[in-house]
Amino acid sequence: MLEETVKKILTARVYEAARETPISAATILSKRLNNQILIKREDLQPVYSFKIRGAYNKMAQLTEEQKAKGVIAASAGNHAQGLALAAKLMGVKAVIVMPRITPEIKVQAVRARGAKVILKGDAFAAAAAHAQELIAQHGYTYIPPFDDIDVVAGQGTIGVEILRQHSGRLDAVFVPVGGGGLIAGVAAYIKYLRPEVKVIGVESEDSASFKAALEAGERVVLDQVGVFAEGVAVAQAGEVPFAIAKDLIDEIITVNADEMCAAVKDIFEDTRAVAETSGALSLAGLKKYIQREDAEGETLLCINSGANTNFDRLQHIAERTELGEQREAILAVTIPERPGSFKRFCKAIGKRMVSEFNYRYADPDAAHIFVGVQVKPGGEDRQAVIDKLRDEGYPVVDLTDDEMAKLHIRHLGGGRPKEHFEEEVYRFEFPERPGALMNFLTHLPADWNISLFHYRNHGAAYGRVLVGMQMPSDDRSHVEEYFDAIGYRYWKETHNPAYRLFMA
């Protein structure tokens, strides 16, 4: 299988649509991390993503009869744009079925490249099902985003370019992983020619379907998939990519949202390119690898797979960058509610930069403060701050890794009920479309009361919502049955310490 894949990579037709992208030296990051770090710039493709390679190569294998009937795909992202451009260059009709939650910028980008866009359903599964219905009606040829040998071969040309452009020392190549088409092609070519080079996949920790498949020895379907890095939000690894890559890649590293945001900043500072979160995924994994291995003097390359991000999402990415770099600690600190306490607290912090300070009077004896403090990366300095505050007599809760605190509580500066009442608090991911909130509310029993609600638009396909609900005691034991029927992802936060300290 390896030789067959490499032959297909070497004969792939991609350069009628794609361009050979350069490798940029990340000089600032290299100096900071004591390793030579290189970035393969797939963000410089005509569609700002590597997906044009696989889409065009697959279309180049079609018969004239297939081209005459047209092609179709279900996609909410970069594959849609790649296929639209490939079809336009070949003069072939293209239909792209996209979920209704797809950001308008991506819908317009696909239409601008001549494809017909059909918006269907609230999630990818509904769009994919409708695409199959259209295939049955019109005879379109489906162009898959990753689960196809010709698509894999097209993506594999990135591996060819890497070894041709950089012939010197190369210790490891880091590849973002969604369905696996990119890493299968890159790993096949690099391992065939230079088996000593490590090929390391990087996945978002809440959509790590390839890692789960490797651990199980077979493809598995994840129960839930995170959407922060929507370009790699895949519930199951592709059959063809998994068969090719399972024995070739050295490991899979997973990273969180904060680490991806920090990597977006790193790429910008070295190249002035604004990567999408899935595009910066591989750099986030590279940095984690250096920290874990205590690596120095190595030559490490990562693939910036794309730059298709909404402008209004950058605010949220910027907010999370310092956390991703471990340069900010988010703490809940209790201080006495009396004159001079705030001054004494600031003296305990010392000359450190305070990035955030939220406080509202709530108790005559004790004040709970939500505070952000800049620290040095690595975790030791954060712990030193906590230890110093505790030595000064302050109770401290570390909220740096608390998702609810970072997404919601820091933006809810005060406001408590005057009297105690019971409520259940849940965090949801809502699809960003008109009617999503109404769909949520109509599934709740009529005698439930919304007692807390916080939402911010982050420019993504999904919004993050915090909801407090008052309900009859009889409903509490099976409250999640109602939420399962709605179909939105959710997390119970009633006992979250950030909620208890600042909102209860």
UniProtKB/TrEMBL annotation:
CDD domains linked to this entry: ACT_ThrD-I_1, ACT_ThrD-I_2, Thr-dehyd
Catalysis performed (reactions): L-threonine = 2-oxobutanoate + NH4(+)
Q: What is its EC number?
A: 4.3.1.19
Q: What family does this chain come from, according to its entry?
A: Belongs to the serine/threonine dehydratase family.
Write down the SUPFAM superfamilies for this protein, in alphabetical order.
ACT-like, Tryptophan synthase beta subunit-like PLP-dependent enzymes
Protein name as catalogued: L-threonine dehydratase
Q: What is the lineage of its organism?
A: Bacteria, Pseudomonadati, Pseudomonadota, Gammaproteobacteria, Oceanospirillales
Q: How does it assemble?
A: Homotetramer.
ACT-like domain location, by residue? 329-401, 424-495
UniProt function note: Catalyzes the anaerobic formation of alpha-ketobutyrate and ammonia from threonine in a two-step reaction. The first step involved a dehydration of threonine and a production of enamine intermediates (aminocrotonate), which tautomerizes to its imine form (iminobutyrate). Both intermediates are unstable and short-lived. The second step is the nonenzymatic hydrolysis of the enamine/imine intermediates to form 2-ketobutyrate and free ammonia. In the low water environment of the cell, the second step is accelerated by RidA.
Which PANTHER family does this chain map to? THREONINE DEHYDRATASE, MITOCHONDRIAL, THREONINE DEHYDRATASE, MITOCHONDRIAL-RELATED
Native source species = Onishia taeanensis
What molecular function terms (GO) are annotated for this protein? L-serine ammonia-lyase activity; pyridoxal phosphate binding; threonine deaminase activity
Q: Which domain of life is it from?
A: Bacteria
| GO terms (BP aspect) | isoleucine biosynthetic process; L-serine catabolic process; L-threonine catabolic process
